[in-house]
Amino acid sequence: MKIVVQNYQYQYALSRKQIEIIMSVLPKKYFEPIREFVIVHGERYSEVFEYFYQDRLVYFTYPVKDKTSEIITDAIVELLIGLVRIKSKSQFGHKMKDKERVEYLPFVDEWLDKCLFTISKN
After folding, report:
1. Are 93 and 50 in contact (CB under 8 A)?
2. Nearest by Cα to 120 from 55, 62, 73, 61
3. 3-class DSSP assignment, residue 108
4. Could you tell me if 33 and 80 are in contact, meaning their C-beta atoms sit under 8 angstroms apart?
5. Taking Cα atoms as reference points, which of 119, 88, 113, 105 lies closest to residue 24?
6. What are the angstrom distances between the C-alpha of 25 and each of 28, 92, 95?
């Protein structure tokens, strides 16, 4: 999977290195469907994590002014939800309802602390 940072002028909630670390923590099957992961700046799509099945392309839009531990945690939650949505063949391009988001929280609960711990070690 190729990771592209669209604009180095801005700061993002997750860096390329942090995404690579998360890739090393999670099973490979969650990143296999992705050909290119683009960290973008600009107007957000419906969600922070948007996937285009035909192009196997992710747009991750989470620019920040200040990078705090809360923002990093929230960004990892968004990343994990996006990855599990791909595996469950969820429809992208719309704002998720709370009910839909809750369906993915067991996956987040399983992996969030492992991701945060591994990022903190690096």
Report:
1. yes
2. 73
3. helix
4. no
5. 119
6. 9, 25, 28
Report pTM: 0.94
Q: Where are the alpha helices (DSSP H) in 1-122?
A: 16-25, 69-87, 98-103, 105-121
User: Which residues fall within 8 angstroms of residue 35, CB to CB, at 6 or more apart?
Assistant: 1, 2, 55, 56, 57
Token pair of 111 as six digits: 């992996």
Dump pLDDT digits (tens) for 39-93: 998 776 789 999 999 999 999 999 898 899 999 999 999 999 999 999 999 999 9
Q: Which two tokens stand for residue 81?
A: 């939800």
Burial profile 23-54: b = 16 or more Cβ within 10 angstroms, e = fewer: beebeeebbeebeebebbeeeebebbbbbeee
Cα separation of 109 and 81, whole Å? 10
